[in-house]
Every structure is written in C-alpha cells, then in structure tokens.
Specification:
This protein has 194 residues and is of the alpha/beta class. It has a single domain, classed as P-loop containing nucleotide triphosphate hydrolases (Rossmann fold, 3-Layer(aba) Sandwich). It has 8 helices and 5 strands, in the order βαβαααβαβααβα. The chain has a 5-stranded parallel sheet, sandwiched between helices. The longest helix has 23 residues.
Amino acid sequence: MLHLILFGPPGSGKGTQAAKLVEKYNLAHISTGDLFRAEIQNKTPLGIKAMEFMSQGQLVPDQVTIEMLRNKVDSMTNVKGFIYDGFPRTTPQAQALDQMLKEKNESIAALIALHVDDDEIVRRILNRGLSSGRQDDSDESIIRNRMEEYRKKTSVVYDYYKAIHKSHTIDGFGSIDEIFENVTCLLDDIIVNL
C-alpha cells in the first residue's frame, strides 16, 4: 500500500492535486475534517467521543483521531493506497500514524509539500472567496494569519519526515497540469523504489 501525506497551506492546490492523484493511482483521499464530520454525523462511538471534546472547546485527542483513521484505512481494501490531508499536524500525531502503519507492516512513503509564495496564496484565496462566500476567504489579514499558523504548526512534521528522507517539496506555482506532472514524476520515482 502506498501511504502519502499531502502538505500545503490553504490555497496551495492540495485538494485539486489530491483529486488527480486519487484518479491516476487508485488512492483514497482521507481528510481528517471529512472523517470527523462523517463519524459525528453517523453517531459512531468514536464520533460521539470526538463530539464530547469538541462541544467543550477541546481538541480531539490524537488517539481518537488515529482510531478513526485506522477504521477508515481498514474499511477500504479496494484501493492501492491513501493520501492523508490535514493529518498529521504535530510530531506526536506523525509518530502515532507511523505506529499504526507499522502494525500493518507498512509505512509512509513520502510527504509531499506544495510550495506557493504567500502573495500567490492570498490572491488565490481572495479569488476563491468571491464564490465560496466564506468570510475567512475574503479578508487578507485572516488569510495571512492562517498561513502563519500552518507554517508554525506543520513545519515540525515536515522536519520529522525529512530526518528520515521522506519529505519532498514541489513548486505549487504553474498550471494545474504542470504541477501534477511534477508531483507524478516524483511519485513514480518513489513507487519504483518502494
């Protein structure tokens, strides 16, 4: 199984690239936000547990998130791998993910970070805000704050996988197809060496 972590700040094109990767490589795209919503909506035991923490304004413990991920991964046997989006965000989460995969005799093949400069991200999100109606997509200061939060919180995960030679950066500037070609060239090399 191929396990990829797709990294990039809001507006970097992660969702667009993930959709194309899912199609080309027969992967499942796992967004922890979607996972939380589905578990809560379906009133699963893990969803109820997550809701208890969220309703008190607390973060859902990593163990609950990992169990949700484990259930999702175990339930999808007809795919060749997974793209993790929005997880892990901290070193302990990365370690928990690695442990979960180790129990299956598998591991993260690569973390791929899409790099886009700040001004381009602001431009993309402001454009998105014209159609999304989201308030946080229409205010440049909020957008820049989100980017700063992303960098502060996720750089440690990039460094964690870089220490074991699994972090890679792709230029996220250019056409969707140009970026996709760069990502697939990297991925094809990684898959050959698995």
